[in-house]
C-alpha cells in the first residue's frame, strides 16, 4: 500500500526579508533564480499528477489500493493544478497590465 504524504505549500513561499536581498544580483542572475524556482514547482505539480495517475491505474487494474487514498491523491493533484493555473493567470494579467502602461 502506497502512503501519500502531504507537504505544505508554504515552504516554497518565503517571507520577505530585506536583509537577504543583495544589490549585487544582476538581472540575469535573478532570471535564472526565478526560472529554477518555477521549474521546481512545475516538477512538483507533475509529480502529484503522476502519483494520482499511478494510483488510479492500480485501482482500475484491481490492485490492493484503498479507494480513499486514490481519491485523496486525485483531489490533491487537481487542487495543485488549479492553484498553479490561478498563479499563471495572475502573472499573465500583471504582464498585460504592465504592457498597457504608457511610458
UniProtKB/TrEMBL annotation:
Signal peptide: none annotated. Keywords: Bacterial flagellum, Cell projection, Cilium, Flagellum. It is found in: Bacterial flagellum basal body. Its main location: other. GO terms for biological process: bacterial-type flagellum-dependent cell motility. GO terms for molecular function: cytoskeletal motor activity; structural molecule activity. GO terms for cellular component: bacterial-type flagellum basal body. InterPro entries: FliE. Belongs to the FliE family. PANTHER family: FLAGELLAR HOOK-BASAL BODY COMPLEX PROTEIN FLIE, PTHR34653. This is Flagellar hook-basal body complex protein FliE. It comes from Mesobacillus zeae.
Amino acid at each position: 500500500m502506497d502512503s501519500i504524504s502531504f507537504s505544505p505549500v508554504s515552504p516554497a513561499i518565503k517571507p520577505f526579508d530585506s536583509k537577504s536581498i543583495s544589490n549585487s544580483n544582476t538581472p540575469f542572475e535573478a532570471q535564472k533564480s526565478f526560472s529554477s524556482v518555477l521549474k521546481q514547482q512545475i516538477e512538483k505539480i507533475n509529480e502529484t499528477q503522476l502519483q494520482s495517475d499511478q494510483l488510479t491505474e492500480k485501482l482500475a487494474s484491481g490492485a490492493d489500493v484503498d479507494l480513499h487514498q486514490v481519491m485523496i491523491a486525485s483531489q490533491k493533484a487537481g487542487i495543485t493544478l488549479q492553484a498553479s493555473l490561478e498563479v499563471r493567470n495572475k502573472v499573465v494579467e500583471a504582464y498585460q497590465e504592465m504592457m498597457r502602461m504608457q511610458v
